[in-house]
Design brief:
Length: 275
Amino acid sequence: MKIFNVGLIGYGKMGKIYAKEIKKKKEFKIVDILEHKNILKNPNVIKKFFKSKKINLFIISSPINTHFKYLQHAYKEKKNIIIEKPLVENNGQLKKLKLLNKDYKKKVMIHHNDLLNIENMNFIDNLSDCKKIEMFYGKKELVNSYKKPFFDWLPHPLSIIINFIGEPKNFKILKYTKKVTNNLVLEELKLIFNFSKFQIFLNFSNDLKSPSKKIILYKNNKNKIYDGYAKKNQKTIKLLLDKFYRVNKINDINTNLKVYELLFKIKKQLQKKIN
């Protein structure tokens, strides 16, 4: 039986969830953890960590501003990779990552939890009689003003749009508001994506009374509604690790480049709108 010896990068909220789930699986074993507090004490631990001969899988669950740096190390060492979303910070990093990933032989997976949800996959099936789609995403989440809530949340609905529906012809920002109080930021964003036969209206806010991952398909005969929070959430880390182990060849970078290209286009238009 093949064992994936894990080098876990980041031991915050997500890092601890990975560690807890990996303990339940005989196919995975954590052999080292790279924590921010250790890097502060000795920056040289990064090089030593990535050069480890024991590790054959790096799991990157550190803050977004470290993702590209750690991806570069992992690719250089030609190891398997699992990474949290958002993938990278900007389009420049995405272009460099595309080059790093060209002809890469190892497994690479991005944790887009909506793509691992079986109900999501079955929900969007036949769109031939679809007139309109509405998506409502977000939850009450106060974050520090240096963070961008929409940037952290949008990979969820965008991954569904690109993977299950396709690339839109164009999009338009209908509304964007940002409130900063006591160094905490609240954002609201409304977008419209245009396809040849219908439109998708995407609504995001991190100032909602209750969490929302709702998709409504307006069809000729009967509307279909999916609510990701209606039922107990599936343990997507478990599903992620299961798929990573089961599938012989997998590279999420190739299949999700357009998700992040679209995200950065939205980010660029927002910057123009604000300025």
